[in-house]
Amino acid sequence: MLNELEILRNSAKLSPFIYWGTSLFFILIKIIIGLIFLLVLKSALRIFFRNLGSKSRLASYKKRIDTLRTLTENIISFAVLIIIVFMIIGGFGFDVAPLLASAGLLGLAFSFGAQTLIRDLIAGFLIISENQFNVGDMVEVADTKGEVIRINLRTTVIRDKKGNKTYLPNSKIEKVTVFKVVPSQSDK
Protein backbone atom coordinates (compact mmCIF):
# COMPACT_ATOMS: atom_id res chain seq x y z
CA MET A 1 0.00 0.00 0.00
CA LEU A 2 2.81 2.39 0.86
CA ASN A 3 4.56 1.50 -2.38
CA GLU A 4 1.43 2.37 -4.45
CA LEU A 5 1.10 5.70 -2.65
CA GLU A 6 4.73 6.50 -3.45
CA ILE A 7 4.15 5.68 -7.14
CA LEU A 8 1.13 8.02 -7.26
CA ARG A 9 3.10 10.80 -5.58
CA ASN A 10 6.01 10.43 -8.04
CA SER A 11 3.69 10.31 -11.06
CA ALA A 12 2.00 13.53 -9.90
CA LYS A 13 5.42 15.18 -9.76
CA LEU A 14 6.28 13.94 -13.26
CA SER A 15 2.92 14.85 -14.81
CA PRO A 16 3.92 18.40 -15.90
CA PHE A 17 7.12 17.08 -17.44
CA ILE A 18 5.22 14.40 -19.34
CA TYR A 19 2.70 16.99 -20.56
CA TRP A 20 5.36 19.43 -21.75
CA GLY A 21 7.45 16.63 -23.23
CA THR A 22 4.60 15.33 -25.36
CA SER A 23 3.61 18.90 -26.27
CA LEU A 24 7.15 19.67 -27.42
CA PHE A 25 7.24 16.43 -29.40
CA PHE A 26 4.04 17.28 -31.27
CA ILE A 27 5.17 20.87 -31.80
CA LEU A 28 8.41 19.57 -33.30
CA ILE A 29 6.41 17.29 -35.60
CA LYS A 30 4.28 20.28 -36.70
CA ILE A 31 7.40 22.33 -37.42
CA ILE A 32 8.94 19.52 -39.48
CA ILE A 33 5.72 18.95 -41.45
CA GLY A 34 5.35 22.70 -42.05
CA LEU A 35 8.93 23.05 -43.29
CA ILE A 36 8.59 20.01 -45.56
CA PHE A 37 5.37 21.51 -46.95
CA LEU A 38 7.18 24.80 -47.54
CA LEU A 39 10.06 23.08 -49.37
CA VAL A 40 7.67 21.09 -51.58
CA LEU A 41 5.69 24.23 -52.37
CA LYS A 42 8.85 26.19 -53.23
CA SER A 43 10.07 23.36 -55.47
CA ALA A 44 6.72 23.27 -57.28
CA LEU A 45 6.87 27.05 -57.77
CA ARG A 46 10.41 26.85 -59.15
CA ILE A 47 9.38 24.14 -61.61
CA PHE A 48 6.31 26.14 -62.66
CA PHE A 49 8.25 29.37 -63.19
CA ARG A 50 11.16 27.55 -64.87
CA ASN A 51 8.74 26.03 -67.40
CA LEU A 52 7.10 29.42 -67.84
CA GLY A 53 10.47 31.10 -68.41
CA SER A 54 11.77 28.43 -70.79
CA LYS A 55 9.09 29.31 -73.33
CA SER A 56 10.91 32.52 -74.21
CA ARG A 57 14.45 33.26 -75.22
CA LEU A 58 14.21 36.92 -74.26
CA ALA A 59 16.46 37.77 -71.33
CA SER A 60 14.12 40.52 -70.15
CA TYR A 61 11.20 38.08 -70.02
CA LYS A 62 13.28 35.61 -68.00
CA LYS A 63 14.25 38.39 -65.57
CA ARG A 64 10.58 39.30 -65.19
CA ILE A 65 9.66 35.66 -64.51
CA ASP A 66 12.49 35.42 -61.97
CA THR A 67 11.24 38.56 -60.20
CA LEU A 68 7.70 37.18 -60.04
CA ARG A 69 9.01 33.81 -58.78
CA THR A 70 10.99 35.46 -56.00
CA LEU A 71 8.04 37.61 -54.98
CA THR A 72 5.65 34.63 -54.95
CA GLU A 73 8.10 32.49 -52.97
CA ASN A 74 8.59 35.22 -50.37
CA ILE A 75 4.86 35.78 -49.90
CA ILE A 76 4.14 32.05 -49.57
CA SER A 77 7.11 31.51 -47.23
CA PHE A 78 5.93 34.32 -44.98
CA ALA A 79 2.37 32.96 -44.89
CA VAL A 80 3.48 29.38 -44.12
CA LEU A 81 5.86 30.56 -41.38
CA ILE A 82 3.08 32.61 -39.76
CA ILE A 83 0.85 29.52 -39.81
CA ILE A 84 3.63 27.45 -38.21
CA VAL A 85 4.09 30.07 -35.47
CA PHE A 86 0.37 30.01 -34.67
CA MET A 87 0.45 26.19 -34.60
CA ILE A 88 3.36 26.31 -32.15
CA ILE A 89 1.54 28.78 -29.91
CA GLY A 90 -1.58 26.60 -30.04
CA GLY A 91 0.55 23.55 -29.24
CA PHE A 92 1.59 25.14 -25.95
CA GLY A 93 -2.07 25.36 -24.99
CA PHE A 94 -2.67 29.03 -25.67
CA ASP A 95 -5.83 30.21 -27.39
CA VAL A 96 -4.80 31.62 -30.76
CA ALA A 97 -8.15 33.28 -31.56
CA PRO A 98 -7.30 36.53 -29.72
CA LEU A 99 -3.86 36.52 -31.35
CA LEU A 100 -5.42 36.12 -34.79
CA ALA A 101 -7.82 38.97 -34.08
CA SER A 102 -4.93 41.14 -32.86
CA ALA A 103 -2.87 40.23 -35.93
CA GLY A 104 -5.81 41.20 -38.13
CA LEU A 105 -6.13 44.58 -36.42
CA LEU A 106 -2.38 45.10 -36.61
CA GLY A 107 -2.43 44.24 -40.32
CA LEU A 108 -5.28 46.67 -40.86
CA ALA A 109 -3.40 49.45 -39.04
CA PHE A 110 -0.25 48.66 -41.03
CA SER A 111 -2.15 48.73 -44.31
CA PHE A 112 -3.54 52.19 -43.52
CA GLY A 113 -0.07 53.44 -42.63
CA ALA A 114 1.64 51.86 -45.63
CA GLN A 115 -0.93 52.59 -48.32
CA THR A 116 1.57 54.26 -50.63
CA LEU A 117 4.07 51.41 -50.30
CA ILE A 118 1.35 48.83 -50.93
CA ARG A 119 0.13 50.79 -53.98
CA ASP A 120 3.72 50.94 -55.30
CA LEU A 121 4.18 47.19 -54.84
CA ILE A 122 0.89 46.29 -56.51
CA ALA A 123 1.56 48.68 -59.41
CA GLY A 124 5.10 47.29 -59.77
CA PHE A 125 3.76 43.75 -59.81
CA LEU A 126 1.28 44.70 -62.54
CA ILE A 127 3.91 46.55 -64.60
CA ILE A 128 6.21 43.53 -64.47
CA SER A 129 3.56 40.87 -65.02
CA GLU A 130 1.72 42.73 -67.81
CA ASN A 131 4.96 43.55 -69.63
CA GLN A 132 3.94 47.20 -70.00
CA PHE A 133 7.52 48.24 -70.72
CA ASN A 134 10.99 46.72 -70.38
CA VAL A 135 14.47 47.74 -69.38
CA GLY A 136 16.01 49.48 -72.39
CA ASP A 137 12.72 50.87 -73.73
CA MET A 138 12.42 54.57 -74.52
CA VAL A 139 9.40 55.86 -72.60
CA GLU A 140 7.65 59.02 -71.58
CA VAL A 141 6.05 59.00 -68.15
CA ALA A 142 4.44 62.23 -66.90
CA ASP A 143 7.10 64.88 -67.61
CA THR A 144 10.00 62.43 -67.89
CA LYS A 145 11.27 61.06 -71.18
CA GLY A 146 14.17 58.65 -71.40
CA GLU A 147 15.42 55.08 -71.26
CA VAL A 148 14.16 52.65 -68.64
CA ILE A 149 17.25 51.40 -66.80
CA ARG A 150 15.61 49.50 -63.94
CA ILE A 151 12.18 48.20 -62.96
CA ASN A 152 11.48 46.72 -59.56
CA LEU A 153 8.38 46.30 -57.45
CA ARG A 154 8.54 49.73 -55.84
CA THR A 155 10.16 52.05 -58.38
CA THR A 156 11.03 52.48 -62.04
CA VAL A 157 14.26 54.30 -62.92
CA ILE A 158 14.47 56.34 -66.14
CA ARG A 159 17.61 58.03 -67.52
CA ASP A 160 17.06 61.08 -69.72
CA LYS A 161 19.27 62.28 -72.62
CA LYS A 162 21.46 64.30 -70.24
CA GLY A 163 22.15 61.22 -68.11
CA ASN A 164 19.97 62.30 -65.19
CA LYS A 165 18.17 59.48 -63.39
CA THR A 166 14.54 59.86 -62.35
CA TYR A 167 13.15 57.48 -59.75
CA LEU A 168 9.39 57.11 -60.20
CA PRO A 169 7.23 55.34 -57.63
CA ASN A 170 5.24 52.76 -59.58
CA SER A 171 1.95 53.99 -58.13
CA LYS A 172 2.55 57.38 -59.80
CA ILE A 173 2.90 55.83 -63.26
CA GLU A 174 -0.52 56.32 -64.78
CA LYS A 175 0.16 56.87 -68.46
CA VAL A 176 3.20 55.57 -70.32
CA THR A 177 4.19 56.17 -73.91
CA VAL A 178 6.63 53.55 -75.17
CA PHE A 179 8.56 54.73 -78.21
CA LYS A 180 9.33 52.07 -80.75
CA VAL A 181 12.81 52.50 -82.17
CA VAL A 182 12.59 52.03 -85.93
CA PRO A 183 15.89 51.73 -87.78
CA SER A 184 16.36 54.42 -90.41
CA GLN A 185 17.06 53.66 -94.08
CA SER A 186 20.77 54.37 -93.57
CA ASP A 187 20.97 51.80 -90.76
CA LYS A 188 19.75 48.95 -92.98
Automatic annotation (TrEMBL):
Record-given protein name: Mechanosensitive ion channel protein MscS
UniProt-listed InterPro entries: LSM_dom_sf, MS_channel_1st, MscS_beta-dom_sf, MscS_channel_2nd, MscS_channel_TM-2, YbiO_bact
Domain Mechanosensitive ion channel MscS: 116-174
Main location as per UniProt: membrane
Compartments where located: Cell membrane
Span of domain Mechanosensitive ion channel transmembrane helices 2/3: 74-115
Entry's family note: Belongs to the MscS (TC 1.A.23) family.
Transmembrane segments: 17-41, 71-93, 99-118
Source species of the chain: Candidatus Roizmanbacteria bacterium RIFCSPHIGHO2_01_FULL_39_12b
Lipid bilayer topology: Multi-pass membrane protein
